[in-house]
Structures are given as structure tokens and as C-alpha cells.
Amino acid sequence: MARSRRHLNQRNVLILTEWYDHHVRQGIGLYACEHNWHLTAEERVTIPRGWKGDGVLTVFSHRRDIMAYVKRLAIPVVGMGLYRMDIPVPRVVGDHAKIGGMAAEHFADRGFRCTAWFSTTFSPVHELRFDGFRSACAGLRLDAPLKWVWEKSCRDLPEDWMRLRIWLARQLKNAPRPLAVFAYDDYDAAKVEDICRFAKIEVPEDIAILGVDNNELICLNQPVPLSSIAHDLERVGYESAALLDRLIDGKAVPSRPILIPPTNIVLRQSTDLTAISLPAVRSAILFIKDNIGRSFGVEDVARAAGVSRSSLDRLFLQHLSRSVYDEIMRYRLETAKHLLLHTDRSCVEIARLAGFCHSQHFTNVFRKIERKTPRAYRDALSLPSK
Fold this sequence. Notes:
Strand content: 5-15%
Radius of gyration: 24 Å
CATH architecture of the largest domain: 3-Layer(aba) Sandwich
Shape: globular
CATH superfamily of the largest domain: Response regulator
Order of helices and strands: HEHEEHEEHEHEHEHEHEHEEHHHHHHH
Number of helices: 16
Structural class: alpha/beta
């Protein structure tokens, strides 16, 4: 009897999306498992005629039949995309402007001044991501990014791979160097790398490349593995399901889309190089990176770089707008944040692996910079465990 009552009260939710993403569905599935939902999901994007249930999670952009179906539903609907904003559905989406800003900060941290954007197409989501990138570049005093969009130059032949190669190779060869290219996603980033090989341009020595989504199938299977911004698509799915649950319960509809920020940048070889050509600064940064797990100070870095401490600090302030000590702390914090998000190690272990002298020092520095404790940072950016 208890089993039948459990199924009687079970919410029936339809997933209807124009595109498939495993991470989004993982987030939805986690919430569904926690709240005893029954999910209906089609492998092919077909509308289940006659389906009846409690709510719908959807992504639509071009399919008019899906848009028409969503418009006439008399049950709560939550969108997980920013296309067709004229269709009034509450939405949970990635913070694309923040993704663009994170890319600019990543390039500035590595001493780049010349930047570019590449995408094969240009939608409202592309525009948000590019505008966030351009705005952050201005705020960080980087040059305004070059903007390369293939669909605007392809003469109605977007699938012509050889023409794309020739066109983008020309843009890359004519651009100033060193250049940092922010691609809309990992697929576009892989195109840039392939064309760099075609044009005999070194990655990352001449051109650094950053993608979005941390698609490991793409990022890890390039001759030069791609750095990528981890767009938190699992949380998009999870929070979309949570919002739908609240709407089914009769709670108020949010007036604006709920934005989910990216988590971090997964650093790989395609941007793992400072753009600074000064040997002392480059040697200092490599020493910091290679020794981050042990205790060392500014004097040790200066000794490895072959200059005095005061000279090295002056060069860092001149070319990176921060001191050597600030650079050490930045690398230690980035290491710690990566371990907080991608391992279950304790804060004591993380403090040791990131080179902090003890865990309390780690916590104090983390709180000062991030405005929250390491534990709160981990809790805020991690999905609930099953």
C-alpha cells in the first residue's frame, strides 16, 4: 500500500529539448531522484502527443512545433535557454556575460593584451558571451577583441570546411601576437587549434586558445589539450528542476531568468603559458607554478629568476599590475579552488597541497579574497550529493 501511495503522489515531468546535453540531464536526474519524480524524456526530439503530467523542462530555439506546444500548455514550464525571449516562460540559464568576463580575466592574468573572439555562428547567447568578454577586456585595459564570426563571412556556405580554414588562417596570420583567442565553445576552440596547425602557428606560444563547457572528449583529444571554462550545466539542470517544483506548488514566477555562474577554468596546455616575453618574469611564473605545493617566498622566486627581489617586484607591477607575492597567492588560491571543487579532500589536505603553511592561514587568506570560507565556497558551487 505504501508503495502505491508513493507512486500516486509522484510528479510526472517531461524533458523536451531541441538539443541534448548529458550534464543538464544529470542535474535534472539528481533532483528527480531526490524528490521521487517520474521523468519522460524522448531520445529523438518528438512531442509526445496526448502526454499528461505536472510540468515541463524545455529548451527551444528554432522548432516551431515545440514553441507552439509550450505556448498552449496549461501546466508550469521552465526554459533552460535564452532563445525566443518573446515566449514568456521562466528560465534558468548559464550566466553567459560572466563566462565572457572570466575569459578576459584569465587572459589578463597571463599578461595578454591582444585578444580575439571566434565563433561559427552568432545567436543571442553568443552575443551575451561576447559582450561580457568585450566589457571585461575594457575594464582590464586589454585591447578591444577582434571579432571573427564565420557565418558573417561564409557567403551562405557555412559547411565549406576548406574555405573556413583559409579564411580563419588569414585572420590569425594578420593578427598581432601574442594573441589570446576566446572561442564560443570547445567545438569552436578545436577549430581554431586545427587551423593554427594548418597555418603553422604555434599554440600557445603565438596564440592561446580558450573554450567553454569543458567537454573532455574535445578538450583532451587535441594535439594541444584545450583550456576551457567549466560552464555549470549540471547546476542549470538541477536548479531548473527545483524552480519547476516550486511553480508546481504554486509559488511565484521569477521576473527575470535565474543565472548560474561558471565554476572555474580548467587549465590545460592551450593557455598554460604567460604572454610575457621578459625572461625573468616568465622564469618566476614557471617557478611558482612548478613549486606551488611547497612553502616558498618572494626571495626564492627572485633567486630562481636570477634578479633581485626589488627588481622582480618592479617588473611584475609594470607588466602584470600585481606584486610577486600577489602572484604566489593567486596560484595557491587557484590550486585550492580546483581541489575544493574536484576532490573530496579535507581543507587541511588542500592547504598543504596548495602550499599554505597551515590550514588556518589558508582559511584566512581564502576568506579575505573570496569573501567566504573554503567550506562555504565548496558548498555553494557543488551540487547536493545523492
